[in-house]
Design brief:
307 residues, alpha+beta, Arc Repressor Mutant, subunit A, NADH Oxidase, 2 domains, two-stranded antiparallel sheet, binds flavin mononucleotide
């Protein structure tokens, strides 16, 4: 259920008319009307009706059911926001829970300099790494290589779609040209190692996460984007990525010049379950006294019948 729907439906139920609900939400009536229409389209239509007298809004049976779910979700969401506010006050985890990906169009100069970039790699190198294999590497694309990279991105786009639009080609070029600092992140597993390849991928993912977290803590914005181009074998080969390796994505890093949208709040509980021991084994038919051999009497039966 979308947060916007929750807010609109709850405000309508509380304030009873579009005008009063719009005022409470500090939006204009037309915007609220549109939001209600969107909610109705989303939940199968017919959530509210307007009673003729005084524009009062009435909820249909379907509307009341949706409203009940909305109120419950709103309660859970409010609790979650309270929890997140507490996490943010915790100095140790605040930088981690506050990290956001920042799209390249919201990144400007300056990017991290020659002293700062190695700090991000140092953080990546402290990711847990079974066997110390360092199954990843980073390719830096310095400014002077970017025009050539932009041409390769254009060519890749045209290989995928020969009729691609000039706007899409411009977007592909921009991804190569715009970020102040651009890195290719390559997963480079050691093939003949007792450490399973999936563990090496986990190490690489943890290293990539550390790059993004370090960038955030150093006051830069960063994002990793793969897109279809990372799956193009010709581009990978042109960038020096070998057959056993995977070009996992391009990391753009720079100064945040436009704030990204607020992060979706997700409950930590949704990522966790609790194991409390093995469930008691289901009793066998013999133990239940349903033994086909002795009919549950247990006399001279090779099964241990519980009679
Ligand atoms: C390896 C990797 C590749 C990604 N590629 C893309 C991509 O091509 N397009 C995209 O929209 N998001 C991509 N993402 C997701 C974004 O980087 C980002 O994590 C997502 O937008 C969520 O934002 P958040 O990090 O602020 O939660 C990728 C993430 C990873 C880890």
């Amino acid at each position: 259920m979308q947060t916007e729907h929750l807010k609109c439906l709850s405000a309508l139920a509380e304030h009873r008319t579009l005008a009063r609900a719009a005022q409470a939400l500090a939006v204009d009536v037309a915007a609220l009307h549109e939001a209600v229409a969107a909610a109705q389209a989303c939940y199968g239509g017919g959530l509210v009706e307007t009673a003729s007298a005084m524009d009062e809004i009435l909820f249909t049976a379907r509307g009341q059911a949706v409203l009940a779910i909305a109120r419950q979700s709103q309660g859970e969401l409010d609790g979650l926001h309270r929890d997140l506010a507490v996490f943010r006050q915790n100095k140790a985890v605040a930088p981690l829970v506050d990290r956001r990906s920042v799209s390249p169009r919201r990144l400007g100069l300056p990017g991290p300099d020659a002293e700062t970039l190695p700090l991000m790699l140092a953080a990546a190198l402290r990711a847990p790494d079974h066997g110390r294999l360092r199954p990843w590497r980073v390719i830096e694309f310095p400014r002077e290589s970017r025009e050539m990279l932009a041409v390769l991105f254009e060519q890749e786009k045209l290989r995928r779609d020969p009729l691609t639009s000039p706007q899409d080609l411009a977007r592909a070029r921009a991804h190569a040209l715009r970020p102040p600092v651009l890195l290719g992140f390559v997963v480079s597993p050691v093939m003949r190692s007792p450490v399973p390849v999936q563990e090496q991928w986990l190490c690489a993912g943890a290293a990539l996460g550390n790059v993004l977290n370090a960038a955030h803590q150093l006051d830069f914005g960063a994002i990793v984007l793969s897109g279809d181009r990372c799956f193009d074998p010709i581009l990978s080969a042109q960038l020096g990525v070998s057959g056993d390796e995977t070009l996992a994505g391009f990391v753009s890093i720079g100064t945040v010049v436009g704030q990204p949208a607020a992060a979706c709040a997700v409950s930590p509980a949704s990522a966790m379950s609790r194991w409390t021991g093995l469930a008691p084994a289901a009793a066998s038919p013999e133990e239940q006294g349903d033994c086909a051999a002795c009919r549950g009497l247990g006399i001279a039966c090779r099964h241990r019948c519980r009679v």
